[in-house]
Amino acid sequence: MAARALYSAHRALNLFLFIVLASFLFNIAFISAKSTIEPCSNADSCNALLGYTLYTDLKVSEVASLFQVDPISILTANAIDVSYPDVENHILPSKLFIKIPISCSCVDGIRKSVSTRYKTRPSDTLLSIADTIYAGLVSSDQIREANSISDPSVLDVGQTLVVPLPCTCFNGTDNSLPAIYLSYVVQLEDTLTGIAFRYSTTITDLMNVNAMGNPSIKAGDILAVPLPACASKFPRYSSDFGLIVPNGSYAITASHCVQCSCGPGNRNLYCMPAPFAVSCSSMQCRNSNLMLGNYTAQQSSAGCNVTSCSYGGFVNGTLLTTLSSNLQPRCPGPQQFPPLKAPPTTVIRDSNFAPVPAPQSDGTGSPAPRSGLIPSSIGSLPGLPPASGPVGTGFSSPSSSSSSSLANPLGSILAALMLFIVAYFLTSFSL
């Protein structure tokens, strides 16, 4: 009788341990969100973007303070007109989606941004900081590891925390063309098709960049999304070396003296005096009457002789200008500028300021987004990098630098382990 009772207790204990272990493995394999991590081996940094959804109403300056960036850079990255009165104190509405420009560094062999600092408040927890204040761009475990916190339940009010944020560089190119990468947190309603459509890319390109084995995504995943851009050619010794501007937006540089825009519809960086430029060095090209951004064109039988005054970088407080002349097949037309938006006061669904689901057909024959299911070039297959294209490495934890994929092979391994454990326990129960 005692042996039977002992046997029943042993089975009950086995069942309890099985349930606990299975729950733990399930959480690791299927619940943890994943992000794309780019291994690196040098100290070079690049310009990158974060896709951020405001958790409450915030002034432009408050959002800038949250990420330690220039408020003007947030406005220009989102093609918002900086000429509005007191625009830095404009209140942006809760749930607004905006792009945050950041510097992407190489830290411990991995691309990440580590310039953001956050000062804790009385009601803060690591989870609320990660999921609410930084909108899922970072996890509580990542903040804990970055700050060597032994007890995450104890946070001192006013404590300054390093907030590691995801970013990628991929040499500032996508398929050998200039690009800047947006770290995008997947929302519940998102599909890979919808994300590709919104950012004018293909499913194949997104899968290649993020090293995905299949197009499956889930809420909380962080994708690296390549955005077409205009790249500068400033000398390395200039303070704005490496400036790259996403297509359809603009940037203010040279101590707010110069405005550089990209597109729409072309990848030629065009720079001119900023609208509120004050106390700036000379913007006139030497040996010329042309000012920065101006050009003259003279038609001839051989083509069009174009002389232009171009921006060449900001060095020791001085604007570098370059006077160049060349013969072009035809005279250039008016410069196209990105259409600027008024500072938003409300969140408009399916606008440029909010995530959108997959496009739906309205029966009018509207063109469908470019499909990523058919390779755009020979030797480019879904899940494999195209020729000269970047290769992303998906991770469920940014503390690792080994190869993996966004499809989370760790989940497959753990699932197999779970099946083995199930079989073991079922066998033990039958004995």
TrEMBL record:
The record's listing under PROSITE patterns reads: LYSM
Specify where the region named Disordered lies, as residue ranges.
333-379
| SMART domains with a match to the protein in the record | LysM
Q: Does the keyword Transmembrane apply?
A: yes
**One Pfam family named in its UniProt record:** LysM
The membrane spanning regions, by residue number, are 406-426
UniProt lists compositionally biased (Pro residues) regions at: 333-342
* Keyword set, alphabetical order: Membrane, Signal, Transmembrane, Transmembrane helix
Give the range the annotation lists for the signal sequence.
Answer: 1-33
Q: Which SUPFAM superfamilies match?
A: LysM domain
Q: Domain LysM spans what residues?
A: 116-163, 182-225
This one is known as LysM domain-containing GPI-anchored protein 1-like
Native organism is Cucurbita maxima (Pumpkin)
* Encoding gene (name): LOC111487761
